[in-house]
């Protein structure tokens, strides 16, 4: 598939900017919407390989703004659990076909929206609950698995971190640190499995300015833009893309 077409750029540019805004200013929870959007127009493996270097760049660009503002104890538990989760994700990816990956990405998107709606309506309330290391390790396994197959580790991280009573900035800083490390751990496996290609890496170079621009916007918007507005747009996008991916996988 030729990646250097007007239609691919029309989808990639806003998706990458959105990822930068999300990871730079609003936690990593909805950044995986970018991979979901790309998986509609690209093979899932191509979408994953294209996004990982850009997500890593966004992580690096975001890290200085939140340096040492993270909760290391919470991050450490999640990172330990992410190791077996990442390996399980690699096995799933190796043993399944693209439609299974599309189906999983779509299901994760819709389940994430349902989870967030349950929280916003009060059906689920994690704030104020202190989760122990066991819950953190389990969340880390889920984080590693979903991060590998869909770049969607944010929801699992959020479940545990919200139960630690972190403030807005500490939550954001901790997610930036976690996904910088998790994404770094995925590089060698992605390369060994052939998920990166010459075309995806060349397109990454073209998209670098848009990723950095989105990150800058996110950092600025962190203290300005209402979270309700940002996440409302993100949830709507995830609902549409998740539904489309499930439809494509089953038809």
UniProtKB/TrEMBL annotation:
Q: Which Pfam families match?
A: TauE
Membrane topology category: Multi-pass membrane protein
Keyword field contains Membrane: yes
The main location is membrane
Keyword Hydrolase belongs to the record? no
> What does the UniProt entry say about where the protein is found?
Cell membrane
Q: Which residues cross the membrane?
A: 29-58, 70-94, 100-118, 139-163, 169-189, 201-217, 229-247
GO CC field: plasma membrane
Q: Cross-referenced InterPro entries, in alphabetical order?
A: TM_pro_TauE-like (IPR002781), TSUP (IPR052017)
| Keywords annotated in UniProt | Cell membrane, Membrane, Transmembrane, Transmembrane helix, Transport
Which PANTHER family does the protein's record reference?
Answer: MEMBRANE TRANSPORTER PROTEIN (PTHR30269:SF37), TRANSMEMBRANE PROTEIN YFCA (PTHR30269)
Family stated for the protein in its record: Belongs to the 4-toluene sulfonate uptake permease (TSUP) (TC 2.A.102) family.
Tell me the protein's name. Probable membrane transporter protein
Source species, please?
Antarctobacter heliothermus
Source taxonomy: Bacteria, Pseudomonadati, Pseudomonadota, Alphaproteobacteria, Rhodobacterales
């Amino acid at each position: 598939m030729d990646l250097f077409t007007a239609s691919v750029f029309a989808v990639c540019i806003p998706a990458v900017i959105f990822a930068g805004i999300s990871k730079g200013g609003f936690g990593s929870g909805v950044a995986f919407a970018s991979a979901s959007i790309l998986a509609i127009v690209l093979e899932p493996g191509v979408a994953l390989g294209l996004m990982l270097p850009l997500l890593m760049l966004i992580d690096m660009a975001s890290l200085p703004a939140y340096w040492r503002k993270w909760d290391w104890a919470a991050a450490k538990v999640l990172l330990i659990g992410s190791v077996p989760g990442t390996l399980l994700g690699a096995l799933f990816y190796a043993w399944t076909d693209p439609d299974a990956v599309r189906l999983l990405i779509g299901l994760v998107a819709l389940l994430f929206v349902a989870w967030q709606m349950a929280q916003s309506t009060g059906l689920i309330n994690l704030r104020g609950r202190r989760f122990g290391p066991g819950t953190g390790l389990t969340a880390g396994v889920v984080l590693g698995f979903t991060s590998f197959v869909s770049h969607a580790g944010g929801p699992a991280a959020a479940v545990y971190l919200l139960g630690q009573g972190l403030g807005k900035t500490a939550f954001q800083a901790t997610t930036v640190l976690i996904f910088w490390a998790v994404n770094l751990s995925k590089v060698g496996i992605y390369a060994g499995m052939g998920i990166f290609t010459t075309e995806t890496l060349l397109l990454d170079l073209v998209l670098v300015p848009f990723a950095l621009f989105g990150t800058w916007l996110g950092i600025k918007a962190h203290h300005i833009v209402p979270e309700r507005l940002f996440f409302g747009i993100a949830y709507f996008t995830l609902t549409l893309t998740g539904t489309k991916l499930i439809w494509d996988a089953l038809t």
